[in-house]
Amino acid sequence: MSDVPIRRLMISDFRRIEGTRELPFDAPVVLIHGPNGTGKTSVLSALELALTGEIRSMERQSDRYRAHLPFLGQSYATVRADVADYLQAGTPGTPLTVSGARLEGTPAFNPATAQFYAERCYLDQSSLGRLLDLYQAREGSEQSALEKFVNELLGLEKLDALRSGLSDANDFRLLKKLAAGVDEADREAKTAAAALKEQTALRADLRSEVADARQATRNAIDALDLGTPDGGSDAGLVKYVQLALKKHNTRDKADAAEKVHQDIIALGGRISALVEHPSTQRIEETRVALAAATADKFRWETTVGAKVHAWEVKAQTAGLDLRSELSVAVENAKSLTLKELETAVQVHERARSIGKQLDAGRAELDLLQRRLADAHEHSSALVEGLTALRSVVDATNTCPVCDRDFAETGEHTLLLHVDTKLAELTNHGQQLLALRSERDQLAAGVSRLETEHVQVKNQAPSTDRQQAIEQHHSTLLELASEVQEIEAAKSDGAELTRRARDLQQELDDLEAAASEELHIRSELARYAALLGVAVEPTFDSFQTVSAELLETASTQVSRLADRTNQYRKADAEATRLAAALERESASVQRLAEAAENKKQWDDRVTEAKRRQGIAKDVHEAATQARTNIVHRVFTESLNDVWRTVFTRLAPNEGFIPSFGIPSATKKTFDIKLETTHRSGEAGGPPQMMLSAGNLNTAALSLFLALHLAVQPIVPCLVFDDPVQAMDEVHVAQFAGLIRLLSKQNDRQVIIAVHERELFDYLALELSPAYEGDELITIELGERAAEDDQGVTRHRWEPDIAIAN
After folding, report:
1. In the sheet that 17-24 helps form, which strands lie side by side, from edge to edge?
2. What is the pLDDT of residues 348-389, one digit of tens each?
3. Would you give the DSSP letter of residue 405?
4. Rg (CA), the chain
5. How big is the CA angle at 325 (ends 322 and 330), to the nearest 5 degrees?
6. What SS3 string covers 313-368?
7. What number of other Cβ atoms are within 10 A of residue 105's Cβ?
8. pTM (predicted TM-score)
């Protein structure tokens, strides 16, 4: 069939597809089947790449996805799609090659057609489950996919451009910047109006100000009881006030009264602090308690304290650090002393062991020395004698000592006998040399032992030191047996000391409070005399008297402050009257000039506003037209198509998904998805109201609705396993919908499924129904190795039984 948009796909070493395959797609319906992992998604991904130059579902996961497209072990992959001539963008038959991150070649579709295919024609498997979220997702201030689609669907660009161009007409401030001369006329008219208004108001204000200042000045004079000024002129009134101000000294009196008022407030704080202290009886109780605590502390110092002091002296003598906890100090000292005793014992044992070794070495050295001396003496004399004898022995074998003939022995000659003896003595000398070496080694060992014995003996403490350490250890044991009792006693002593100190501090505070009481009584009497109040302050009446004096002082401060304010007010009003009189005389001329200037510019502004009204009427008409279009598209197009598709796929679902209708006055749309029950009651978002299966159905129906709502650039639909989580009823409804789209709406449909039963069912439901209708089934996996490579073309044939 030659009128379908997608004709053929060639794939070579792409993802799960090894080798090169050419798949025919030139039929209204193409069904692709294969178990999981045989390459169904790879085929549809290769188709998307060949048509658009990218795979959006993978690009959402990683921007380096192209490196993983070649088949495992291959360096590159190749895809090519043959499409209808009216859709072809590049050179027909030119493949796309993917090698690492590089993509070489031109996709079959141009960018606009490729975008329509990716957004409106192809629904991949990974996107179906989260399609609703993907449609509503936005990055920053960018529009979501739904918003972009709705803007394209409504086609409001020209209408929005008209509204945008006329929007400034709604605000005269914006319009005057566009029309030549209007901004200047408006600015000058406003300036003139403001000037006229200012001058008019100024004239009225000046008249009112003069009258008000005159009356306020007279009222201030009356309030001060300064008499009535001579004459009735405003200038005479101002002069009268100035003379009166030079004579008054109310400000000094007010400052003095304010100081008294602040002093009484401070005195009140001291009184509040004083009354919180206990009474004189409490002072006596504190003194008694302090005396008892002091006596207890004295008894402790003379009894238990003396014992503690004696223990501490003993501990200090023993070298204990009493700044730390006593039990810890004792234990540390015991540990050090015990370690020193153990070290002394070890040194003595080491010295005894070395002494035994030294005695044994010395004895052995003496024995060896005697042996060496004897052997040396014997061998030296004999060698000398035989050497002298040999010099006089001749071949006669006659001994020069005994004159006997050595031949009588019958062994050998005398000379040979002497030489033999000398040779034996020479060997004996070598033995002497070895004996000397042994003696030297033994002597060196004895010397080392002597040195080590001296060093070890020097390390060992003396007898006095040993006794001192043992005595110190005994002392520490005695101190340790008493340390808990001493610590408890010290704790009791510290508590007695703290109690005595606290009571002494409390007594000092109470006595200071008693002194404060006398001072406060004298201060209250002094302030009462200053304010002329007759009171007799006692401790119990301090707060009452203070409150009475404070009220009197406040009254006096207020009275003097009012008097000062009245003088100040009179001065200010008189000054204001003089200034108002000066300004009034200069305002009349400026008022006439401003009125003339304003009329000139008002005529120009009136004409500009007449033209603005015409532009506003056109803008309102465009806004109303836009509102009508938005409501009509959402209610009669998008929601109606979505409802029709969804209810066809899910006839038993109570909640129907739909678009929430946005405000039509905005240039952009913030579109939300919602649900409505068949009864008409509003529901929540589809993600909350629908089951998992019906949520997929809602996503699938929304995808179909968006495809059907616009004129298709590419009249095809491509699905990768679209019936996820659908039951048999939904599958049957889906098959019927696909048949309707293919047979009546002239859409080429390509579907990939992995279930064999679903594949067989769809192949039966979507089989050719009339002359020229066709179905292609492509089976991947084992069937791809057969002669037909798993591709079967189903053509319509008349039913012989019916035809006959």
Report:
1. 17-24, 6-14, 77-83, 96-99, 102-104
2. 777 778 778 878 877 877 887 777 776 665 565 565 566 666
3. B
4. 62
5. 70
6. HHHHHCCCCCCCCHHHHHHHHHHHHHHHHHHHHHHHHHHHHHHHHHHHHHHHHHHH
7. 17
8. 0.47
